[in-house]
């Protein structure tokens, strides 16, 4: 990019906090709590109704995180003008691709879309165009962007948020849970419309549309490399054979959790895995004495976990995992001063410039430019750090057009000052 800096928005005024009357509690959906659709014939009726509706469609999904294996959707909520609200059980209905196809040309409204898109894709629902009210709130400068807080601040209604962490795989779902689920989409389109106006007033609407398009177009995340390295407490494990024990225990736990459709943490805690890896017990009795392997773990399970530790103990040296292979990209910033003092100076200057610009624009620094993007640019800057080269480097790192317009001149200056 070689043209002069563009200023899409100049120091917008933060959204004013709501004042005046107390928020109105929203106790029930306008048309009442709909029956859950849990069979194909009912799904066909929902497809027809929503295809005939008008305007954007509010969409939400409920999972059973912490209870079941994976991130499967156990309830899908939708609301659209002319169709009302629908609660769809994807377990009973199976594939929902017909519903996704019926809404293919419609804007889907989410709150925190990235949380729901993976599980919706798995059941055949993928939006081409979306509006994310959480992301819109961040760009508009709201300090708190939870759905309940946003609805209260922007629309003056108070949502109940008491059932967000329940086990949505429960059947039948209790009526209070269903009411909560229906209310989650009751005002989502209203919130979308108000935030669109706010963003337009601040000169940020085009920014938001770029962000929404990027979210909608993002491919599914690839499987993590060596996911066992993310075991909580892994930093305590230093020796390679102990690392192998973590890997074998994690893998055995994951296989069992998948078989039983349980959250891995309900099968064996991360703390127990780390404790066993550090102790490397030689038999099930010693295993049973460790934290997390107490009296509630039966003998067969103790034998399973002991077998994993024994496998790690018997591995040849060449098959032991290497430390530090779970991450890619630059080293942790705290190590930069020793590894590359010039890169550390670049990072300090670039961070300060991006932070200052984010404050001027009244949005979070990570939404202006992600910390990872800044780190990667500063660790391996272009050979010629002019505007065009820096712009291309940011583009390769995934920065959107609006982000590059706001940050390229600042980053060129920061890189030049430390070269």
UniProtKB/TrEMBL annotation:
SUPFAM superfamilies listed in its UniProt record: HRDC-like, Ribonuclease H-like
CDD domains listed in its UniProt record: RNaseD_exo
InterPro entries the record matches: 3'-5'_exonuclease_dom, Exo_C, HRDC-like_sf, HRDC_dom, HRDC_dom_sf, RNase_D-like, RNaseH-like_sf, RNaseH_sf
Residue span, HRDC domain: 239-319
GO process annotations (BP): nucleobase-containing compound metabolic process
Pro residues compositional bias, start-end: 12-26
Annotated SMART domains: 35EXOc (SM00474), HRDC (SM00341)
Compositionally biased tracts (Low complexity): 1-11
Short name of any one Pfam family annotated for the protein: HRDC
Domain of life: Bacteria
Sequence segments annotated as region (Disordered): 1-28, 315-339
Gene Ontology molecular-function annotations: 3'-5' exonuclease activity; nucleic acid binding; nucleotide binding
PANTHER family: RIBONUCLEASE D
The name this protein goes by in its record: Ribonuclease D
Organism: Streptomyces lonarensis
């Amino acid at each position: 990019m070689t043209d002069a800096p563009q200023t899409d928005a100049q120091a917008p005024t933060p959204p004013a906090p709501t004042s005046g009357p107390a928020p109105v509690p929203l106790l029930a959906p306008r048309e009442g709590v709909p029956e859950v659709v849990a069979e194909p014939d009912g799904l066909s009726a929902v497809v027809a109704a929503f295809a005939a509706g008008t305007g954007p469609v509010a969409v939400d999904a409920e999972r059973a995180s912490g209870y079941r294996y994976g991130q499967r959707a156990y309830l899908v909520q939708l609301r659209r003008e002319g169709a009302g609200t629908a609660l769809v059980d994807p377990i009973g209905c199976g594939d929902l691709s017909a519903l996704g196809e019926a809404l293919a040309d419609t804007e889907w409204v989410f709150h925190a879309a990235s949380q729901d898109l993976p599980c919706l894709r798995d059941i055949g629902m993928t939006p081409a165009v979306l509006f994310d009210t959480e992301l819109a709130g961040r760009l508009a400068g709201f300090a708190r962007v939870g759905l309940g807080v946003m609805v209260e601040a922007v629309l003056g209604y108070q949502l109940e948020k008491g059932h967000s962490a329940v086990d949505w795989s429960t059947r039948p779902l209790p009526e209070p849970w269903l009411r909560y689920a229906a209310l989650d989409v009751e005002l989502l389109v209203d919130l979308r419309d108000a935030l669109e106006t706010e963003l337009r007033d601040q000169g940020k609407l085009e920014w938001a549309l770029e962000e929404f398009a990027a979210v909608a177009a993002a491919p599914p995340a690839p499987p993590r490399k060596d996911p066992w390295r993310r075991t909580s407490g892994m930093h305590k494990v230093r020796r390679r054979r102990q690392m192998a024990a973590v890997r074998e225990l994690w893998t055995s736990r994951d296989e069992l959790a998948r078989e039983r459709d349980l959250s891995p943490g309900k099968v064996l805690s991360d703390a127990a895995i780390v404790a066993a890896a550090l102790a490397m017990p030689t038999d099930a009795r010693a295993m049973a004495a460790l934290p997390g392997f107490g009296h509630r773990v039966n003998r067969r399970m103790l034998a399973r976990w002991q077998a994993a530790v024994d496998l790690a103990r018997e591995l040849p040296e060449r098959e032991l995992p290497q430390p530090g292979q779970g991450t890619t990209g630059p080293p942790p910033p705290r190590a930069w001063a020793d590894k590359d003092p010039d890169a550390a100076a670049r990072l300090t200057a670039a961070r300060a410039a991006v932070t200052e610009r984010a404050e001027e624009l009244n949005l979070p620094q990570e939404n202006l430019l992600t910390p990872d993007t800044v780190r990667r640019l500063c660790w391996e800057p272009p050979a010629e750090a002019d505007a065009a080269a820096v712009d291309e480097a940011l583009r390769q790192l995934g920065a959107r057009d609006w982000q590059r317009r706001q940050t390229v001149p600042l980053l060129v200056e920061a890189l030049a000052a430390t070269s």
